[in-house]
Amino acid sequence: DNFAHRTSVRHALANDKDWQGKFISVALPLIEKQHNEVAYLVPWCQLGKPPKEGGVYEWVTFQMKPGGPALWGEAFRAAINAHINTGYTRLIGVFHTEYGLLNTVHVLWWNESPDQRAAGRHSAHEDARVVAAVRDSVRFLESQQNALLIPLQCSPLK
């Protein structure tokens, strides 16, 4: 909810014997590095939910040019909306960094399968609405990285 809530949750986990014994002590030897950042849901996006259990997620990280949403926000939003309006994929959320590498935007999409996502991507590349919106937004783009995420059974997003 906020930084005070984050602090209280971290404190509770540090004192949770079950968390420490069953998760951290098992996971810690497997971790080579950790990257933390704090991001918020952008004001124009509501956190979505997948229409059903299962499926896969695509986590797309955009490194935008310095200047923040005042510079690139409108064009970025138009590109996201163009993708939403086609129905090729379902938006779960758009997040902007508060701490960490600034001018980073993460977008989480849901799809029924990796093949459905691939077909949607190919369709989007040929859709004039998407091409026009993306063409306008890429002038603010430094880099993009996409990751396919398959939720574990313990994930609330399964």
Automatic annotation (TrEMBL):
Entry GO terms, CC: mitochondrion
Listed InterPro entries: Dimeric_a/b-barrel (IPR011008), NIPSNAP (IPR012577), NipSnap_domain (IPR051557)
GO biological process per UniProt: mitophagy
Domain NIPSNAP positions: 1-46, 57-156
Family: Belongs to the NipSnap family.
Name of the protein described by the UniProt record: NPS3A protein
Species this chain originates from: Grallaria varia
